[in-house]
Amino acid sequence: MLIRDNGAEFTGNGIVGWAEERRIAWRYLTPGEPMQNGFIESFNGPLLDELLNETLFSTLDQAYMDLAI
User: DSSP string of the chain?
Assistant: First the structure.
């Protein structure tokens, strides 16, 4: 089972198809309730501060390349 919020990160047909092929169920968090997944929320904040908020990217491709290291 994959647990996710209602954001746009995992709405692509590729990830949905991948999950269906493997018979992986989706569970959605209640909108506005980030504490339902407190572990990842506590991880994402510092990650954003250390990586993304410290860097100014000129293009989306640059961001992908810099973060793929």
Answer: -EEE-SSGGG-SHHHHHHHHHTT--EEEPPTT-GGGGHHHHHHHHHHIIIIITT---SSHHHHHHHHT-
pTM of the model: 0.39
| pLDDT tens string 13-53 | 777 788 889 998 887 777 777 677 777 777 777 877 777 66
**Every domain of the chain and the residues it spans:** 2-67
The CATH number assigned to the domain with range 2-67 reads 3.30.420.10
